[in-house]
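Justification of computing resources. Each target in the renewal requires a structure prediction run like the one illustrated here; the chain below, 142 residues long, is used simply to show the kind of job we budget for.
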Amino acid sequence: MGLSEKTIEIVKATAKPVADNGEAITTRMYEILFANHPETKELFKDASSDQHKKLATAVAAYAANIDNLSVLDKAIEKMAQTHVNTAVKPEHYPMVGVSLLQAVKDVLGDAATDDVIEAWKEAYFFLGDVLIAREKELYATA
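Resulting structure tokens:
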């Protein structure tokens, strides 16, 4: 099942403000994630100091191409490989998702309406399912 047209429309419409505030959003996301789920810090022990910038770039690319995900195939594969190498599991995705959505609300303020947050939630968990499925394959062959 794919993303709803409404979600695609909202995510594309908010791609620029999210990209413009990407580093603030991802920095805040990591603050929330580590405060609420300190056990996840271990997953990032070898991450580069600019991990928040990499995530911001990935989020912006996803938003800009949400209606043409095949453009992101190489990036998704690289992300899945990295997740397997760092022992990311399916149960981590909701932790990150909730933290990311809260960070979007915190940074964008009133612009992060309920409709915007719902669209980004659908988009995040859709991509999460894609990554989880690929990671399951990679774990099985590891």
